[in-house]
Design brief:
Number of helices: 3
Order of helices and strands: EEHEHHE
Strand content: 15-25%
Structural class: alpha+beta
Length: 106
């Protein structure tokens, strides 16, 4: 099982699931970010593949920018990146205050 992604309220209540990762696609994307360099992708490389990571609205916005940048360095991940960038916009957009982008590792 890979890294599952969801959007939660600040109190931990699930708003929606963003990405289930049975094929480890997101985990491979995180690994690719490590290969390219922590300085280029500080948010992608801060996701713990074995633990839980939470991004608030400020972090989600920056993470969305990293996803756009890494898309030029990976193949066949357009669906994954599109789902994640949509989730980043939802969390960072402020329509519903207090949302978090949550990553659940193995």
């Amino acid at each position: 099982m890979g890294i599952e992604v969801s959007i939660e309220r600040g109190d931990g209540v699930l708003v929606r699931e963003v990405w289930g990762d049975p094929l480890n696609r997101f985990a491979r994307l995180v690994h690719r970010a490590w290969e390219l360099g922590i300085d280029q992708f500080p948010f992608l490389t801060s996701i713990d593949p074995y633990g839980d990571t939470r991004f608030n609205y400020l972090m989600a916005e920056r993470f969305g920018h990293e996803l756009v940048r890494i898309s030029g360095h990976v193949n066949n991940e357009a669906e994954l990146i599109a789902n994640l960038t949509t989730a980043c916009s939802e969390v960072a957009g402020g329509q519903v205050p207090g949302l978090h982008l949550v990553f659940l590792g193995d």
